[in-house]
C-alpha cells in the first residue's frame, strides 16, 4: 500500500505558504472557508508533502473554489462529482495524496449517490465538506443539511425536511475515518486533516463552516457556543456504537475524531486482483468466440 508521500529530500521542509497559489480567494469576508483553506495549508506543511504529490478535487460551489487556491494539482469538476473523479485519480496513481473539498449541497444533494460507494470501497482519500447548511454560490437555497424550520430563499415559511446528518450517515455507509470540526478552530481542524491524510482509507471531515452572507453572524455564534470536543470526554473512536451515540447527542455538537477503523483500501485490494489476474494465462479470443458459435 502506498505511504503518504513526504519530501524526497529530507532537507526540504515545506511551509504553509508553499501551498498557496497565486490566485487570491474571493470568498466573502467572514466566510468559514478561509479557515478551512488555512488549515489545509498547515496540514500539508506539517506532513511535508511535496505539492506535486497532492491532488485537490472539487465540485461546484463557493467551497469548491478551493483547488484554485492551492499550488498543487487540482480539478474543479462539475457539481456533485468530486468522489468519482477523486477515485479515478487515486486508482491511476495511488502515490498521490488525494483530497476532495466541497459543499454540503455538492456532496449530500446532487452528489449523494456517490458518497456511500466511495466510503464502502474505502478509497484512500480525504473528503472535507465545508458544511454551511445552505447553497452559498447560488445565493441561499435550502441545503440537505439545513434544519427543520430554517428559513432560506426556497423555504420562506421554514424547512419541513428532516436534515441529512453527515457524520452519522458517513459512519453508517462505511467511511473508515469520520470527524467533525469547527472551521473556526484551525488548530483542531488542521490536526484532524493531518490525521485524515495519514489514515489509510476513506477519511471524512464535516467542517462546520459558516456562510456569513446567507446565514448571517448567528451561524458562527451558534457553532462556537454549541460545539464540544470529544477528546474532553475520553471518547474511544474504535467503538462504532459510541461514535454514533456521541454524534447524535442533543446537548451539544461533538467535534474531533468520532470514528476510525483500519481495513484494506480500494487501491490495495485492486493491486491484489491485478496481481492474480496477471498470473492467469491470457485467454485466446478465438477460443472464447468458438464457444458461442454453433
Ligand atoms: C448540474 C448542476 N446543477 C446545479 C448547479 C447550480 N449550483 C452550483 S453550486 C450549487 C450549490 C452550492 O452549494 P454547496 O455545494 O452547499 O456549496 P457552497 O456554495 O455553499 O459552498 C448549485 C445548486 C450546477 N452548477 N450544476
Ligand atoms: S456566499 Fe457564503 S459560502 Fe459563499 S463565499 Fe460568501 S460567505 Fe462563503
- Assign the structural class, choosing from mainly alpha, mainly beta, alpha/beta, alpha+beta, or little secondary structure: alpha/beta
Q: How many DSSP-defined strands?
A: 10
Q: Are any ligands bound, and if so which?
A: thiamine diphosphate, iron/sulfur cluster
Q: Which overall shape is indicated by the principal axes computed on the Cα atoms?
A: globular
The total count of helices amounts to 10
Largest sheet: 8 strands, mixed
In short:
With about 290 residues, the chain is an alpha/beta fold. Helix content is about 35%, strand content about 15%. The site of iron/sulfur cluster has 11 residues, from helix 7.
How does the SSE layout of this entry go?
Blueprint lengths: L32 H15 L6 E5 L14 E4 L5 H11 L4 E7 H7 L4 H7 L3 E7 L2 E2 L5 E2 L23 H8 L3 E6 L3 H13 L3 E7 L3 H15 E3 L10 H8 L5 E8 L5 H14 L5 H8 L2
Parallel strand pairs: 1-2, 1-3, 3-4, 4-8, 7-8, 9-10
Antiparallel strand pairs: 5-6, 7-10
